[in-house]
Amino acid sequence: xxxxxxxxxxxxxxxxxxxxxxxxxxxxxxxxxxxxxxxxxxxxxxxxxxxxxxxxxxxxxxxxxxxxxxxxxxxxxxxxxxxxxxxxxxxxxxxxxxxxxxxxxxxxxxxxxxxxxxxxxxxxxxxxxxxxxxxxxxxxxxxxxxxxxxxxxxxxxxxxxxxxxxxxxxxxxxxxxxxxxxxxxxxxxxxxxxxxxxxxxxxxxxxxxxxxxxxxxxxxxxxxxxxxxxxxxxxxxxxxxxxxxxxxxxxxxxxxxxxxxxxxxxxxxxxxxxxxxxxxxxxxxxxxxxxxxxxxxxxxxxxxxxxxxxxxxxxxxxxxxxxxxxxxxxxxxxxxxxxxxxxxxxxxxxxxxxxxxxxxxxxx
Length: 364
Description:
With 364 residues, this protein is α/β, with parallel strands linked by helices. It has helices at 13-24, 66-73, 100-107, 113-123, 133-158, 168-171, 196-203, 217-220, 235-238, 284-288, 315-329, 348-363, and strands at residues 6-9, 29-33, 44-46, 52-54, 62-63, 78-80, 85-89, 92-96, 188-192, 209-213, 228-231, 248-258, 269-271, 280-283, 295-303, 310-311, 334-336. Among the domains are: 6-38 and 204-247 and 312-363, Rossmann fold; 99-171, no CATH class. The longest helix has 26 residues, at 133-158.
């Protein structure tokens, strides 16, 4: 094997951004990924019907970080897109996150912004201290909205009761007294104009970067010689599960194409908190702006087994991660970065930020 400065394990956001930064600085980099494609979970492709779909569920780019947006703008043009979601309760779709329109339609009210604030104040169940996701939601919107929109969705998504999950899970979802029905309110909201995979191809397009796909790190780690390793896989796997496995929640995706259906649903994503085994349906043409006579959708079924997607946010899991983190800190020739390596629920922009910070330290 040719001599190289750095081996990067994983061709998702963390690995690809670090690779590009090191390559731009003159280092020779080998990027490997066990999958047959780049872009990690953001991977998109045209399905057999010609519709651009996200193979691993919807990825909506949003950030308040101008530096992050400008960095990625080197590798893609953008299509402006603001994501909207509906939550189905008793067969009717309501704006979600909950806003004033949600209250007015659900309860047959005519609240203004002040009235909505008073409504939330009247129905909320004050919790002190706020420790769990259940505490967060009850403290904010009270029992009825909690049971209609949050309780069963959380049970499906995590396989746990909201009372068993850290407060931060529910704290990610705002509650609004205005009629803003955008899921995110970040300054920069857009989709890569030609898709995520094309953006990743541009990031990795550098003479100092070699990419090898379908390569499992565990199969070659004893045979490869690199001055430094950047590892973006599961941190517990790197240490052969010495202290046991870190819990993750996985997903099963059920893709479907609907011929001669111009639009399947009102918004990009519709949540199904209650009646179904799946948590949500996403229709990709909303996200991409593509024109096509048919449409393609995906249903998401959370499950315990399968590829790791979401670190399960509980105190005992964080304690287990800390043990692995202590081992990682002893590995002077390895940098651990990314959602799986840092056991964090990162948004895409946060992974980019973490990768840029890691690259800066490596080059420092």
